[in-house]
Amino acid sequence: MTISAAVLFDLDGTLTDSAAGIQRSTREALRRLNVEDGGDRPIPAESELGWIVGPPLRESFAKLGGEDSADRMLEFYRQRYDAIGIFENKVYDGIAEALGTLRARGDRLFVATSKRQVDAVRVVAHFGLAGYFDGIYGAQSDGRRAAKDLVLAAAIAGAGLESAARVVMIGDRRYDALGAKAVGVPAIGALWGYGDRAELAEAGADPIIESPSQIPDAVDAALARVA
């Protein structure tokens, strides 16, 4: 029997392939930071920046540009990303169909992302996905609440979900699975995103799936384990 659920979706790497806009905006931010302070920080190629999609941006920028320059780099990043990078993006094949299946059987759907909530709302609306979701939760505009466990806690509280056992998280990186574990909900790993099987398995994602078409059955399987 199908179990109704509240399904929390990561955005980048789970619903949409957003790497190009994030990576290009990061490279531009590093370039401008070097120009501003005369630095010679290496600017990685896009192909070397796969790791940056998923974690809170400020933490990643501290690694790339130094802790003291992370906020300035974030400003440069926003200037390009907000105008251009946010829509250098596309919905993964099969996502709309999977969301439609979940909605048709009565599941409630939410976005829970470390991306700024205002950006997540723009992306979901731009790609015509807003009608599938009951709520969108993300980091606050000043960067607070970016850690995935804080976003998930906010989503669970904001949506009035009474039982964590009826909630499941789906995401492509270890941060999604670890965040889900921290708030006591099962996690599904999405292999079409930016993480790999080893990363997701180590973080506790189960099941780990290869295609959006597997999402409805994976939700049932994850919830059956905690029923």
Question: Can you give a write-up of this model?
Answer:
The chain has helices spanning 19-37, 57-65, 70-81, 95-104, 117-126, 148-158, 174-183, 197-203, 215-224; strands at 6-9, 16-17, 90-91, 108-116, 135-139, 167-171, 187-190, 208-209. The chain is an alpha/beta fold and 227 residues long. The protein has 2 domains: 6-18 and 89-224, HAD superfamily/HAD-like (Rossmann fold, 3-Layer(aba) Sandwich); 19-87, Orthogonal Bundle (DNA polymerase, domain 1), CATH 1.10.150. The protein has a 6-stranded parallel sheet with strand order 5-4-1-6-7-8, with helices on both faces. Strand 4 (108-116), helix 5 and strand 5 form a beta-alpha-beta unit. Helix 6 crosses helix 7. The chain is elongated and about 60 Å long. The two termini are 13 Å apart. The model has no long low-confidence stretch (mean pLDDT 93).
Q: What is the CATH first-level class name of the largest domain?
A: Alpha Beta
Count of folded domains: 2
Order of the strands making up the biggest sheet = 5-4-1-6-7-8
Compute the number of helices.
9
Instruction: Give the low-confidence spans.
Output: none
> Which structural category do the helix and sheet elements fall into?
alpha/beta
Q: What portion of residues belong to β-strands? A: 5-15%
Could you tell me the CATH topology label of the largest domain.
Rossmann fold
Order of helices and strands: EEHHHEHEHEHEHEHEH
Overall shape: it is: elongated
Taking the sheet with the most strands, its summary is: 6 strands, parallel
According to DSSP, the number of beta strands is: 8
Oligomerization state:
single chain
End-to-end CA span? 13 Å
